């Protein structure tokens, strides 16, 4: 198994689309964000479409698509259903917004937006739970997708609010981004600690030999799983995931939230924060693949 960038991009854009729509639902429920409703809906649909395109690059062949979607309870079918429901919810929100005399979607649309925006990343993460890949086989995976949805959505909405001059949405969007960054840091750290302790769950080969690396010592399972915090992947985790992906966005969101950033510079700060958040979540997705690949090649998952 190798790193599947189409799947990484699919899960990322699902979280981004859900995040923007989630925060728009929160803003609508709070009576804010009227001027950015159209931009939020359009951004969510575009992100969803890009993620869907990435899946087709992964499946590559029409027969694979038919086989994948042919079973109603398969993970990919559940993802497809969740994506369709999400898209319909965005369209319904837009139609109700246009129908309203005030130009604002009703409160029940806001609640609907929040529900589907949490359901989509959870369904996406849940479809990857499989005993064959223990690094993914934990509820922390869908939980991580949900918290990154909040983080990405907070900064995505902040970018939109600053771009369309929707001043009443700036502070609340920054607050959501701050909460997302803090919770994301906690969940990422907990997930990394759990992975580091997975060495005992693998059944090691008694002997193995890599003809391409004859002078390299045999690796223990603990070396593979612990590498994420104190090994070859430690720099990527601590700097990329925690530092750039969580701490930097939290600081930037806090500065905007407390009004330390002038209004004319909020857009720049929001873009920087979004780039940092995107970097962190992509690095973590790559690390999940790296650890899963290295462990799967050399060890077997002990189902008992």
Unreliable stretches: 297-304
What is the global morphology? globular
Number of distinct beta strands:
2
Order of helices and strands: HHHHHHHEHHHHE
User: What share of residues are in beta strands?
Assistant: under 5%
End-to-end Cα distance: 23 Å
Helix-strand makeup class: mainly alpha
- Helix coverage percent of residues? over 70%
Q: What gyration radius follows from the Cα positions, in whole Å?
A: 21 Å
Strand arrangement, largest sheet?
1-2
Mean pLDDT level: 86
Total helical segments: 11
The main pleated sheet reads as:
2 strands, antiparallel
Report on this model:
The protein is an all-alpha fold and 304 residues long. The chain has helices at residues 5-29, 37-59, 62-68, 75-99, 107-126, 140-163, 170-196, 221-225, 227-230, 234-257, 266-298; strands at 202-204, 299-301. A two-stranded antiparallel ribbon has the order 1-2. α6 (140-163) runs antiparallel to α7 (170-196). The longest helix has 33 residues, at 266-298.
Could you name the key traits of this structure?
single chain; 304 residues; mainly alpha; two-stranded antiparallel sheet; 11 helices; globular
List the helices and strands and how they pair.
Elements: H1 5-29, H2 37-59, H3 62-68, H4 75-99, H5 107-126, H6 140-163, H7 170-196, E1 202-204, H8 221-225, H9 227-230, H10 234-257, H11 266-298, E2 299-301
Antiparallel strand pairs: 1-2
